[in-house]
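User: Predict structure, ligand FE2/S2 (inorganic) cluster.
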Amino acid sequence: MTDMDIRLTVNGRLQHAKAGVMRTLLTVLREDFGLTGTKDGCSSGDCGACVVVMNGQVVNSCMVLAAQADGSQVTTVEGLASNGELHPLQRAFGGTWAFQCGFCTPGMLVSCHALLSSNDNPSREEVLTAIAGNFCRCTGYQGVVNAVQQAAAELRSANAEAVLQHD
Ligand code: FES
Ligand code: FES
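Assistant: Predicted complex:
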């Protein structure tokens, strides 16, 4: 069977790849596009190290066939920073000891970023629900909760300031 040509928009950039029968979105992101922030922890949908957002949904990219991703919009951890500036969530992870080895961190960041895009003031329980599929073997989860709530507060404050400046 010939490989299928696929096109997907990754972090705002149109990309092309060959999708062999068993190739996953995770493999294409890492091997074809060089986006190695997305990690392969288990290849079986159990750890969340490979989480990306595809068409607005948080997915384990190891469980998505590359062919299924044809035509989709994908955001990886590399897409969270903008104009060379880390997202407030990324800065907060550093400030709250939300990681040690960092292997789970890209997936955690993508899950938490997706939460913040729909909830500007998440409770501890809401954060824990959002990262229920992201396993961390080092740090535990309280630092992640603290980071999300700190970033949420910073984003609310920035938004309030922007509204004041427009009035
Ligand atoms: S590598 Fe995809 S869930 Fe573990
Ligand atoms: S910081 Fe090491 S697995 Fe989470």
